[in-house]
Amino acid sequence: MLHPHTRVHFKNDLIGYGVFATTYIPRGTILWVRDPLDSMFSQAYFESLPAHYQALIDHYHFRNMRGDYVLCWDNTRMINHSCTPTSAGTEFDFEIALRDLYIGDEITNDYALFNLKNHESFDCHCNESVCRGYVCHEQFEDSLLARREELKNALQYVYSVPQPLSDLLTPQQIENCRYKLNSNE
Amino acid sequence: MLHPATELRYINDNIGYGVFAKTFIPKGTFLWVLDELDKILSPDMVRNLPELLRNCVEKYAYVDSRGDYVLCWDFGRYTNHSCHPNMRSLGECVEVAVRDIRAGEELTCEYGVLNLSGSFNCACGKPNCRQTVSAKDVDAYWQDWDAEVNAVLAVIPDIPQPLHPFIKANVTDKALLEAIFNRQPVFAPLHILSKTEASIMPHEDRSGDTLWKVRDL
Predict the structure, then answer these.
(1) Better-scored residue on pLDDT, B146 or A8
(2) Nearest chain B Cα distance for residue A9, angstroms
């Protein structure tokens, strides 16, 4: 589930919708937690679906570290890519704000972390100074290192900021994440 | 699943989001269909969800004729109620445009057929606004509502129906759709959730709320 103080609005025809903060959301805030309403499909199940359903899922899913398709039930699936994302941690089944978000700031992810297949590489239009121009699976290692460093920093604030999603995850999940980040797993 | 020529817009803090047409959509077009990705949740599953999620389900899902919650996976769940809606239920798996819809117009449906557990105050501003909307309204209005659907049945096979391949229909609805596309006569009730004396029988769900079940046609 996505942080409640967010809103979807249409950006433009090229990018489509995006997800934006409607209040100040400080760094360290949990922005998303995978929950029982999200759907998960194996590669085999995905391939068994009719083509028109595969196309739908293709558009809105992300692939987790195990290679499963995750289709979020809520507006999480409208989160866009940015080469300087404001949110990371998907591989731990929750995401954290990497920096302070102000009203109207967009919530973004680094899509290079989503097990992209070759045909899923895309040109990036995030317009950030560090924009990589395109996003592909080959960037996985570099992106993982960069995002994990930011995640480690953001995690320091996790117990000192309001956490409206705290009921959806356990302190063990957070500590597990911290442990893995510190031991570079 | 919503018709592809639609978009989500935030209206205001009171109403929240709404769904709007991006192009002209002719009457008789399927605007929403139940599809394989919509989540069907039993009352037990909903009761066992963490409170945060349970509140979301209660806000965004509707209750079907079996008493299960249906949570639309796409923006369909943001369709607002109107007492003079431009779409109406055709069986349990289709909402059909009962009027021509112009680009920029909001898509609205009738919440009175969605097995509401209570009532809500409506401020749709239509001349026929009922002020208070509840599941009881079906008894009073189902004939008017079905008449609007009946009036567009004949054009359904003649216009583009991009949602047709996505329909997840039960046996009753499959027969209904087949009849419509074969231009055969269709018998009431078109509102499968309609509570006509002849077509429904009440049953208790596990929470003790009375729900309404449609007898197989």
Answers:
(1) A8
(2) 7
